[in-house]
């Protein structure tokens, strides 16, 4: 997530079309690498009985973000006549997501009952 945040910030420094495509390609690979993280983070930090709720909430939040992102981006562009603040805001949101993820503590796994080792029969 941290790398994705800086990938979004890289767009601020793009000045020509070739660089834009290069950043877009790298950012696409970074984004594709973070998508599987959601399920892994959920599984490591929440009990199995909550997985439906956690994955559902993650999907809902992601869908809302993808639905409102273009509107917010358009408003930012209309206000500032530049995409710079859109990318800076995306970077800040990415840093925030990274910091939140770092506060998670792995859910304690249930350990199976330890069986006593068989005692050897004496001769």
Describe the structure.
- With 123 residues, the chain is mostly helical.
- It has one domain.
- The protein is 72% helix and 0% strand.
- It contains 4 helices and no strands.
- α1 packs antiparallel against α2, α1 runs antiparallel to α4 and α2 (17-45) runs antiparallel to α3.
- The longest helix has 30 residues, at 51-80.
- It is elongated, with a radius of gyration of 22 Å.
- The model has no long low-confidence stretch (mean pLDDT 86).
Give the gist of this structure.
The chain has one domain (2-103). Helices cover 72% and strands 0% of the residues.
Chain-averaged pLDDT: 86
- Radius of gyration (CA) equals 22 Å
Q: Helix segment count? A: 4
The low-pLDDT segments are none
The H-and-E topology, N to C, reads as HHHH
What oligomeric state do the depicted chains represent?
Answer: single chain
Proportion of helical residues? over 70%
Number of strands: 0
Most strands sheet: none
The number of domains is: 1
Distance between the termini: 62 Å
Q: How does the overall form come out from the CA principal axes?
A: elongated
Beta-sheet strand percentage?
Answer: under 5%
| Content-based structural category | mainly alpha
């Amino acid at each position: 997530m941290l790398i994705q945040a800086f990938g979004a910030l890289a767009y601020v420094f793009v000045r020509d079309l070739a660089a834009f495509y290069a950043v877009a390609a790298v950012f696409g690979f970074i984004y594709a690498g973070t998508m599987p993280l959601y399920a892994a983070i959920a599984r490591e930090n929440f009990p199995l009985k909550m997985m439906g709720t956690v994955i559902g909430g993650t999907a809902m939040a992601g869908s809302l973000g993808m639905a409102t992102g273009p509107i917010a981006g358009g408003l930012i562009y209309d206000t500032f006549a530049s995409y710079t603040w859109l990318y800076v805001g995306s970077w800040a949101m990415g840093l925030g997501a990274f910091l939140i993820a770092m506060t998670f503590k792995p859910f304690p796994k249930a350990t199976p009952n330890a069986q006593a080792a068989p005692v050897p029969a004496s001769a």
